[in-house]
Structures are given as C-alpha cells and as structure tokens.
C-alpha cells in the first residue's frame, strides 16, 4: 500500500518514514514537508520514497497529484504551534492551521474520488482510506471563552473538525485521532549536562501532568493505525504505547 506522510520534516516525521519502511504492508511513501526543513536523514535515495517540499507550484502540484494517486492512508503530522510563552497561540496562526488541514483533507478526498473512478481503482471501492491525525494528550475543551486562545483548546477544536470533514458520501473513510504525550528520544545519559536536561524535562512534564512516550513507539503506532486500522477512533498516550509495542 502507498501512504502519505504530511509533516515529514521534524523528528517525529522522519521516524514515521523509517517506521513506514519497516512495515511490510507499506510499499511506498510520499513524504511532504515545509520548505524550511532539511532533507530526510535516511531513505532519501530509496526509490520507494517520494519527497515533496511545500509550497508547491503548478508543476509541483501536478507531481503531487500523480505520486499520491492510489494512496490508501495519510498521517497528518502538522498541528498548531505556539509562539511565545504560556501555551498561547494567535488567532491568525490557529486559523492558518485549520485552513491548511481542511485544504489538505479536501485535496485527499478529491484524489481518492478520482482514483475510485479509475478502472484500476474500482476494486478498492470497499476498502477504507485511513486518515490519522496527530493531536496531543493536552488537547481539551476550554472552561470558558478566552480572548487569546489556548493551544489545548485550539487542538481540541481541530480534533472535533477532522471526522466530519472526512465524511464522503458512499465512500469508506476511517479517521483516527492520536493523542501522544511528550515525545522523547531515549539516549544514553553519558554526561552531567544530558542528565540534568533529562531530569529537567521529567520535572516539566510532571508538573504539567503530561504523560510521555518514546519516539519509536509513537511512530510505530501511527504507522500501524494507517496500515491496518482499528476499531477505536481516538487513541490516548497509553493506547499508543501499547499499539507501538511498548510496555
């Protein structure tokens, strides 16, 4: 199967690509990243990997349409980002994030409809397309309306937008909301500085009551969802750890 990974330029995105290649179900990967990111550190010469850099011009969009044609799943690893402190996000940034997500969903839906109209795609009309949205364990509804939106509230609103936005009449589409905690990349603490930094991150997550998950575990879980689906549609940090092979 062919899978699309949107947001392949950060640490999680790169690990998603690596886990996708490790999954025997996945035969090709289309990795889409913003223009400010560096090339993927591995698999960049693999013929099964297609890398696309945003924004796309007319020629680039045509290539994107061709390369993603016949895809069976998408992992959307692009969410709202804060600027400054106190977990705040600007109205413009929130609106931009929602617009990009809905535009991406519209594009993916049109691609699938086009594929299913193709003779080669008719046999896949009863096979669900899987869309995995990477949210956060801190996503939650606000207790009251605030002038400056909180990142957690914006993320919660986006989580609720995804399922209805993906609804397609007479077509099977499965949406999954993944809510990982603080993603960590285990490394050997071979010096005092690294030990202090690790201890500091534990304290920060502890005071924020935020759970943690290993990078490999969350990436493996997200790829597994995209490849095989699941009876559940929302996955907590604990669910992702279990699905990703953790304890």
From TrEMBL:
InterPro entries: NAD(P)-bd_dom_sf. It comes from the Eukaryota. This is Nucleoside-diphosphate-sugar epimerase protein. It comes from Botryotinia fuckeliana (strain B05.10).
């Amino acid at each position: 199967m062919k899978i699309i990974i949107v947001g392949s330029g950060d640490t999680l995105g790169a690990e998603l690509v690596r886990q996708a290649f490790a999954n025997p179900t996945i035969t090709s990967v289309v990795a889409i990243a913003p223009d400010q990111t560096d090339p993927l550190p591995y698999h960049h010469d693999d013929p099964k990997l297609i890398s696309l850099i945003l924004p796309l011009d007319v020629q680039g969009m045509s290539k994107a349409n061709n390369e993603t044609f016949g895809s069976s799943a998408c992992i959307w690893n692009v969410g709202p980002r804060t600027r400054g402190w106190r977990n705040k996000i600007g109205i413009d940034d929130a609106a931009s994030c929602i617009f990009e997500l809905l535009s991406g969903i519209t594009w993916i839906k049109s691609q699938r409809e086009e594929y299913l109209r193709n003779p080669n795609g008719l046999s896949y009309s009863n096979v669900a397309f899987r869309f995995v949205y990477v949210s956060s364990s801190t996503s939650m509804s606000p207790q009251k309306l605030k002038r400056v939106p909180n990142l957690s509230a914006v993320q919660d609103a986006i989580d609720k937008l995804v399922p209805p936005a993906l609804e397609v009449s007479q077509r099977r589409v499965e949406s999954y909301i993944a809510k990982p905690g603080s993603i960590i990349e285990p490394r050997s603490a071979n010096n005092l500085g690294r030990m202090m930094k690790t201890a500091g991150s534990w304290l920060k997550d502890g005071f924020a009551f935020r759970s943690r998950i290993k990078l490999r575990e969350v990436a493996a879980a997200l790829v597994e969802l995209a490849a095989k689906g699941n009876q559940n549609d929302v996955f907590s940090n604990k669910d992702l750890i279990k699905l990703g092979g953790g304890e």
